[in-house]
Amino acid sequence: MPIFEYKCNECGKEFEELVFGNDSQIKCPDCKSSKTSKMLSVFSASVQSSSGGGGLPCGQGDCSSGGFT
Ligand SMILES: [Zn+2]
After folding, report:
1. What spacing in Å lies between the alpha carbon of 18 and ligand 1's midpoint?
2. What is the pLDDT of residue 16?
3. What does the domain layout of the chain look like in residue ranges?
4. What is the Cα–Cα distance from 58 to 21, expressed in whole angstroms?
5. How far, in Å, is the centroid of ligand 1 from the Cα of 46?
6. Which uninterrupted H or E stretch holds 49?
7. Is the separation of the CB atoms in 33 and 9 below 8 Å?
């Protein structure tokens, strides 16, 4: 079951919500406002950074400085 973090744009309340495919009706538990925005979870952010850093070793300028010619 996916749990997403949301933040209320009305009162600034941050809360977690279980989402079952339809996440367009998330309302703030405090002020009942529907003006909420989904925040990127820590889990997905860590996955992105780990997969992005495993590519070619171009971080030291070897690929862009003409070393491959
Ligand atoms: Zn709120």
Report:
1. 17
2. 92
3. 1-19+33-41
4. 39
5. 28
6. helix 42-52
7. yes
